[in-house]
Amino acid sequence: MAGSQLTNPGDVRRVTVTSPSTLILLALVFLLGWGFVAFSPPGSHVAAWWPAAGVSVLLVLRLHRSQRLWGALAVIVVTTLSNMVGGRELLVAICFGIANSAEAWLVAFILTKGGRTRPVLDSLAFAYRLCASVAAGAILIGFLAGVTVAVFDGGSLIDTLIGVSAAHATAVLIIVPFALLPSTRLTRVYPGEIAAQVVILGAALLYVFGPGGELPLSFLPLPVIAWAAFRFPTRVVLFEIVGIALAVSWLTTAGGGPFDQAVNLGGDPSTLIQIFLLSVASFVLLATSSQNENRLVAAQLRDRESVLRGGFVGSRVGLLIVETYPQGFVVLESNEIASAVIAPEREERQGDDGSSVVLWHGPLAQKIKVAVRQRVDHVSWQAGVNGVRSDIDVLITAQKPASLQRYSIQFVDVSAARRTAEAQQLALENEQKATARVTELNRQKEEFVASASHELRTPITSIIGYVELLEEEELDDFQRKSVETIARNARRLADLVESLLELGRPRDPSTVVASTDVVHTADDVVRSLSPSAESSGVELQVEQSEPLLAALPAIELDRILTNVINNAIKFTPAGGSVAVSFARTETQAVINIADTGFGMSPETIEHIFERFYRAPDAEERGITGTGLGLPLVQGLVNKHLGSVAVTSVVGEGSTFTVSLPIAEASDATA
Question: TM segments (predicted)?
Answer without folding.
Answer: 21-40, 46-62, 69-85, 91-112, 124-149, 161-182, 189-209
